[in-house]
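__Protein archive entry__

___
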Amino acid sequence: MKIEVAYALPDEQMIIPLQVEPGVTVEQAIRLSGIMEKHPEIDLTENKVGVFGKICKPDTELREQDRVEIYRKLIADPKESRRKRADKKEATKG
């Protein structure tokens, strides 16, 4: 079956198409893709993974045409970033 493994950096996006046997898991697909050799910063014990934008467990079985996604850690907390922007905007008003 055909699947894809995707990983995005701020300035680069990799999508690796694969032909795999039915029953392959998310983790197996990532390892088969070879992406971890190209990007040694990927750690499957730390990075979250998903299929089409929905976080899942590494042992999730894939289906035809699934796209496995490897998510990077957030550099900043989104809530904290929004709060800082709002505070800054409020300060420039007054």
